Amino acid sequence: MSKSAANQRAPAAKRRDRKARHGSAGSREQIDNKSRRDGTRPVTQKPGKVRAELRIIPIPLSDDILPGDSIADKLLACLRGRRVRLQPGDILIVKHKIISKAEGRLVKLATIVPSAESVAWANQYALDPRVIELALRESRSVIRRRNGVLITETQHGFLCANSGIDVSNVDGGRHAVLLPENPDRSATNLRRDLKKLTGLSIPVIITDSFGRPWREGLAEFAIGIAGMKPLRDDRGRRDPHGYKLKASVEAVADELACAAGLVCGKLERTPACVIRGFRYEAGAGRVRELLRPAASDLFR
How many domains does the chain have? Predict the structure, then answer.
């Protein structure tokens, strides 16, 4: 007896059950394919739901960034050269340095006249007194100054070494690069430019490498954000064992920044990447949501 004939003689209920079992995966795949084609694939979800697989797509740049350059044009040109297109649901992660360079946040170190205090501190630890002076000028307050390490609070509210001043990957030590004046605004502007060029409203996270208390090594932190919520609040939800979570607020923007840091290192000439597959919560996020107020900081 043929397979089709046997199927016709099967009871109607069994045929319906077989169709449900074998047809469900295909139906889901068709829906997902359709959503990718027409750009309607959802990019938000309930907190705690993450896809099983994430992709990190590097965006290397061979040319240096100059003041006035369009970061959106540069990044999209690189993606086209690699035959990669942005998709709905993508998240763009960008190292702050190319943003700062494009915005002209460069200082010629030869123009900095350090104070006697900066000179004395720098000489004690074989540091550049001009960088120390610039770090003090860019700071809101000095948190720690010990063993050659200067920890400051920047005008943005970041706690980091030397107010985020950096001379690496600039021009060999002649200039220092400052943090963007308003990283959230920089992220918003880049997101707007990308939408004009691609029609896609994708989130943008600007990052920088900071040290961390109690742990060695640098890690990436989000310092500017646009188009998504930087925190995921799971308080009140129950874990798989039924326990109600009481303190689980996850810094997803920082986690995405760290993931990007795996391909956007200082020596790779890869100042940006696309993270694909993470279902974020859309919204008008701001980096200040990630900053713990001094009043609730137990270590300041």
Answer: 2
